[in-house]
Amino acid sequence: MDSLNSLMDGFGTALTPINLLWAALGVLLGTAIGVLPGIGPAMAVALLLPVTYGLEPTGAFIMFAGIYYGAMFGGSTTSILLNTPGESAAVVAAMEGHPMAKAGRGAQALAAAAIGHFAGGMIGTILLVALAPAVAALAVDIGAPDYFAIMVLAFIAVTSVLGSSRIRGLASLLIGLTIGLVGLDQMTGQSRLTFGSLELADGVDVVIVAVGLFAIGEALWVAAHLRRGGADAIPVGRPWLGKSDVKRTWKSWLRGPLIGFPFGAIPAGGAEIPTFLSYVTEKRLSKHKEEFGKGAIEGVAGPESAASASAAGTLVSMLTLGLPTTAVAAVMLAAFQQYGIQPGPLLFEREPELVWGLIASLFVGMVLLLALNLPLAPLWAKLLRIPRPYLYAGILFFASVGAYAVGGEALDLVVLLVIGLIGFGMRRYGLPVLPAVIGVILGPAAEQQLRRALQISDGSVVGLVNTPFSVTVYVIVLLLLTWPLLRRLPFLRRGTPS
Amino acid sequence: MMNSLEKSPSSAEESVAPGGRGAWLREHSELGVSVLLFVLGILVLTDALTMHVEIAQRGPVGPTTVPVVVGIALLLVSVLLAVDVLRGGRGEAEGGEDVDLSEPADWRTVVLLAGVFLANAVLIGPLGFPISGALLFWGSAYALGSRHFSRDPLIAAGLSLFTYFVFNNLLGVPLPGGPLMGVL
Questions:
Q1: Which residues pair with residue A192 across a beta bridge?
Q2: Which residues on B lie below 8 Å from A394 (Cβ)?
Q3: What number is the average pLDDT over the span A257-282?
Q4: Which residues form the DUF112 domain (chain A) (predicted)?
């Protein structure tokens, strides 16, 4: 009941004209970004981080969340009409959606996807309302050792679960941690890796790192391999669904969130795994198995619903534990740091207006998105015609605005380019970008918590594992680390042991 | 999940294939990443070990502990990566909607873009953001292959002025106006 009351208060915050404006702006930008190739929600939020200098936190986070959800909606439009996902979460949508579009059922595919996102987002956000305060209450008296354990979990998960090569993930994480070390040590004021430069004493701003890796690195990488003469989008009418389609898809819409939400909450790569799992599930349960691969509508509805629900799950971990499980959450965490707000169990107590305003605005945003995407999908598809030089020149332009806004220093632009070139090299050699970003964002905080914990325990390592919470987290870390070995054990090979 | 580490069993044969050392190096250019990580590790370790830790240390873990751990880990990872590359492991280049990996990298565009970007860093002070930003957009679009000599500069100028106005006047994030804004 308590959270219902808080949610009502949240609607009071979310429905003020100014916050409605931010929500509308967020979902508009998000849909556009989702549709546009080359820009993902993480890059978009990174490019918008400078607004945190001028905007109050509630409005900023309402806009960021709108971008996150909106990108999910928009991404599937590109997938279905162009067969090239505008967003990694929308890869699966292309598998059934594009054949549908080619067969003249694009309108139905778009409708199944949009309603799927709406259903998934709604159910996911309701689960967020129900679960987040409980998780926060459970973890409310966590201290330094627990925070450190969570950050270790984030480091390990992001390097060993995501991506294809652990060693490359680890290399990326270490690059991020090294960048995070630059500057004055927070506890002693000792300068580290500054090489006597005063500008570096403040450290490298997280905004510059995020913009450099996500925006500059990506733009340069695409520029080096720009596809000449891309595919054309299949023209499509206004999305709608017939009765028989609804009959086939409503269960898929409801099943998707059950898979998507939990996967969003754990550090397992966001929406990619759950959308795929949902696809497999729908295929297994469908009465029209033979249609799969040729345009089965369930294969669009389920995964898209799972994708949006996973976004809600991501917010649970980020808001209650400060644990970023996706790139967008990582950049949002950076925004929290810009405001000097520590996401975690205490967030619900200290910033109720922010948290509940944000959650309520998710419901508002979802309704706006459905209204925007169902009738206007053909219009959004026109965005695909934007000339690529303008698109990537625009990314570079806004990246430089963002980096300059950090401190008004031209030197920051040079640092930005250097980090962008690092991002370019990482893409060339298959080093995932996310671990580096997590390393920069969480590295300094992790060091501080580690030192604080050891200070309390007077140097004894036991101080790191003296709470049930931290022990639980380390067990999970251990499981993640040994999983490739465990999987080879004979009794785990066949199915799951009960 | 895709296993993108393409293990090529034939890498041993390729290394003796015609082309000699140059071809081998190109094939194993990822070793450069390993070298960079190693250098970075040495850098971090040197910085940590030459630090003067005197008075200020509070608690058992000082300002050098974490850098030492990170430095050693960098050295370790660089060696492991080199081993992986020599055994035929390859990091998969990132794909994307507008990315065509079948063609060789277009270095000219990348260098041009980096140059335009640096020019912006130099010019933003003396010329102000509205002018340097417009040059950045136009230059980038040109580098990327756009050749509309009337449309491109107009879009660049419009975008730059609009952004200046939104950030400087609406969001309260100051950008340098330069001589142009002094005139207007």
A1: A183
A2: 137, 159
A3: 84
A4: 20-437
